[in-house]
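Expect chain and fold; see below:
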Amino acid sequence: MEELGLKSCDHQVGGHMKKDGNTPDTLIDDKGRFYKPYQNDARNLREAAFYSMMWGSRGADADGSEPEASTNPLGEWGVGEMYGPAQGQLPKPEDAAGLRTFIPKFYGVTKVEDRQYMIMEDICRGYTQPCVIDAKIGFSTLYTWADEKYQKKVIEKDATTTQSTAGFRISGVQVWRVKEGEMHKAERQWGKTLTKDTIHTAFELFASNGALSPRDLYFGPQGAMARLQAIRDWFATQASFCFYQASVLLSYEGTATRMEDANVQVHLIDFAHTFPTGGKRDDNFLSGLDALLSILKTHCDK
């Protein structure tokens, strides 16, 4: 893969790990693109169709050139039985336009060495040592039109993590420690040990590069809170999408010793379980996001 400019995505936290549990199963290239494994199942079909709807079947390159990826022949997002009871109700243009400002760009689906990948923007491109935290939002990840096996799985996961009590769970954290000159990682298993009373420590860990304060990273003029609030404002008014197992991903430059160099970013990711709402607000995601904002205000605004 090296001859194609591809390498393992070392800043991957949370899902898509290889069978050894430690090696990322995602790739990045030297053009600032992120390669996520793609299979022809309902979850991947929905996510690729979602991105195709948001960015066009081949995506949009920053330089205006056509991306080097095949188109995704999926038809319209939201149409078909795998989209649940509100299938066929397509999003309002204003809701889609607002959401587009918070998600990675999409460059289509392609094959690399007999394996298919969705290609999207590598949102950590430009970081030397990216600090990342992935939080799956919502008090429930269950949608009732899923098959029985899947419902049983997510009910158990919601009950045994902070999902159902805190309104979100931590899928992974990594933070660069300036003084030590090394990366500290806390993966999904660590997130499972957190409780409603201790989950705030994940955000303190994320903000602990040793040079910047949690207050600056979250609440300073260049901090994450303004972007999180903008996402919250969008959720408060949109009635086109409902998100299950979608994440808020926060990132910044770990080597930064000044906020001017931190380049704090906030994105929404993971749309394999995103569906039409039938004209209803997504209060499950909104209430989980409110819970996250409350924890940040309580524990990190000091």
User: Anything to note?
Assistant: Residues 283-299 form the longest helix (17 residues).
